[in-house]
């Protein structure tokens, strides 16, 4: 109980702190505020002054007072999760967590953080603000009241069998970023214009540099490989080579929360990219000929969307596989709370 209340208090602290920051901006303060469009590509001069943030007399409603009102809702949700835990509080906390993660636009962080680390011009207020939103989303996910009682079977932990459909979605979530992102980006770094005009490729490689390009290429591949843990033994029981953790059961939230956050981010990023391409076609800013010439770049948005869907399905499968049993019951063949095997079937329970 103390741990849950502590997590709820952390979410409440985030909501209050972020609300005060938004109130400061709404009432005329501009320190730490940026007016740059996160979906665009501002130049170094625009980034330097936050795209004219200091000259803004008032903010748009959803960037000003609208955001303050939404922070008030977050405060109420966090307070409810701390004082009156239950299904309503759990639903509110999870809704707030998903909303904050989506607003953080975290898919873009996969590109912006490596660029910032290599010293290139970066809109730091935007980057830090979205990291703050992402952290807030994680705090609300951690604070969500649990409606299922925990049960840890006696004896050494044993991995539970993973359904075939979960394995298939896990393998898809592993292969999609490798084949759909890492392979084409590696080809581009090597100067091979695969699905992208040669001139555009040359300018892009010169702009980001080899180190940033390498980081951008390897990050999705590493993420895809970690996804295999959702269907592997080491995703349920820590492997032997981990000192201090070897042989211990992996807490399901340790895998479910990050995987779920990334899945939401990937789906959101893919939908936003597809929406921007659709809008460009509708307004004439983009043509079908341009999309065909850069089919690999346009297809990356589909890769992100499919990757997010596959990862979400694999995460649901992992959560169902590792979900705790109700108090006093184990799974078939596992010891119950008093060391006795759990009932194998309903008929055995009735017969007993």
TrEMBL record:
TM segment ranges: 7-25, 62-81, 93-111, 131-148, 169-191, 211-232, 253-275, 295-319
Keywords: Membrane, Transmembrane, Transmembrane helix
Compositional bias (Basic and acidic residues): 322-332
Chain intervals for the UniProt region annotation (Disordered): 322-352
Domain of life from the UniProt record: Bacteria
Positions in coiled-coil regions: none
Name this protein carries in UniProt: DUF3995 domain-containing protein
Organism of this sequence: Plantactinospora endophytica
Taxon lineage: Bacteria, Bacillati, Actinomycetota, Actinomycetes, Micromonosporales
């Amino acid at each position: 109980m103390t741990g849950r209340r502590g997590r709820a208090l952390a979410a409440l602290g985030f909501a209050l702190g972020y609300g005060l920051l938004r109130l400061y901006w709404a009432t005329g303060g501009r320190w730490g505020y940026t007016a740059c469009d996160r979906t665009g590509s501002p130049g170094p001069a625009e980034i330097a002054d936050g795209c004219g943030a200091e000259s803004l007399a008032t903010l748009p409603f959803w960037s000003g007072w609208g955001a303050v009102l939404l922070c008030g809702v977050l405060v109420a949700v966090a307070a409810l999760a701390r004082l009156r835990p239950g299904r309503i509080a759990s639903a509110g906390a999870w809704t707030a967590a998903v909303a904050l993660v989506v607003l953080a636009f975290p898919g873009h962080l996969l590109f912006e953080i490596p660029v910032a680390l290599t010293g290139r011009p970066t809109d730091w207020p935007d980057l830090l603000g979205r990291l703050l939103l992402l952290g807030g989303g994680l705090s609300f996910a951690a604070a969500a009241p649990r409606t299922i009682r925990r049960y840890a079977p006696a004896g050494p932990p044993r991995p539970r069998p993973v359904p075939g459909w979960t394995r298939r979605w896990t393998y898809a979530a592993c292969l999609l970023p490798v084949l759909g992102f890492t392979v084409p980006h590696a080809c581009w770094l090597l100067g091979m214009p695969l699905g992208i005009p040669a001139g555009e490729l040359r300018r892009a490689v010169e702009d980001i540099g080899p180190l940033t390009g390498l980081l951008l290429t390897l990050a999705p591949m590493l993420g895809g490989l970690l996804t295999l843990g959702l269907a592997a033994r080491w995703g349920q029981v820590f492997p032997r080579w981990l000192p201090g953790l070897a042989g211990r059961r992996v807490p399901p939230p340790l895998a479910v929360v990050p995987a779920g956050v990334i899945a939401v981010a990937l789906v959101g990023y893919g939908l936003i990219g597809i929406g921007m391409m659709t809008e460009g076609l509708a307004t004439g800013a983009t043509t079908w000929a341009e999309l065909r010439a850069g089919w690999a770049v346009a297809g990356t948005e589909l890769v992100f969307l499919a990757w997010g869907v596959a990862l979400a399905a694999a995460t649901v499968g992992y959560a169902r596989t590792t979900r705790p049993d109700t108090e006093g019951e184990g799974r078939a063949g596992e010891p119950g709370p008093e060391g006795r095997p759990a009932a194998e079937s309903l008929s055995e329970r009735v017969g007993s």
